[in-house]
Amino acid sequence: MNKRQARYFAIGSTLLATLVFLGLTLDSHRQFPKLTNAQNITPAVTLGKDAWHKHNCINCHTIFGEGAYYAPDLTKIAQQRGAPYLRAFLKDPSKFYDEQRHRRLMPQQNLSDEEIDGLIAFLDWVSKVDNQGWPPRPIVVTGLGAGAANATIPSTTTATDPSTSAEGAATAMTGKDPVALGERVFMAAAPACTACHSLTAGADMAGPSLAGIATRTEKTLASPDYKGTATDLTSFIRESITQPSAHLVPGAMYSANGASFMPDTYGKDLTPEQIDQLAAYLATFK
Q1: Is residue 2 part of a domain?
Q2: CATH number of the domain enclosing 198
Q3: DSSP state of 73
């Protein structure tokens, strides 16, 4: 290739690259309204966006991967936590964290009720933007979550597990072992249980750690303070899934105004079989 050919090749390549870039840019702008749910940008969303910038939330948090990394990414926080939790948290973050234990504490922003409602609306809008699956992992508040390397996850091949027998092994292999199926439900429910519950003792997140739930349940059912209708471990777990406000732990920051922060939609979103499987799985945490 001589100098003239090299020059023409460079010019042609530049023009082609420019055309491709412009085409992709125009196509992106064409899709922005649909991808960002622009039609759902209400005055409350705008107010929340302004509060987000006014209080410099991005100095600690990220949305869509943009911002600081000192505090959790909040892209999907509205789906993972829900409005009741966010409202109570924004009112007084100190009730959810202990600076000595967690080595960090979100400052009290003294937000007005209008700003809190706006921020919740803004974060709800953000959570519904089609961001191609980002962030890839559920939010972790305390640094420990279900699936962490040191999580205490019960084995489905223990001595008391039916899969240790020939019949049980065959059942597990055909995908009918309720404990194994319950673990899948725990990881894949929408929103995923792992977004709020840890399987590591002492690692409380938006909801309490589920390590030792079987032992705690025995004490709860025997307590005169228990307000639910469950009579045993399995029915208590079912009740906690389908009616999370049936029994609220006194003094615990997992509820506000007499209602649990846990969504009350799992009874509709999960089939009775899935709930039974989830109960069977969680019952193994002694």
Answers
A1: no
A2: 1.10.760.10
A3: B
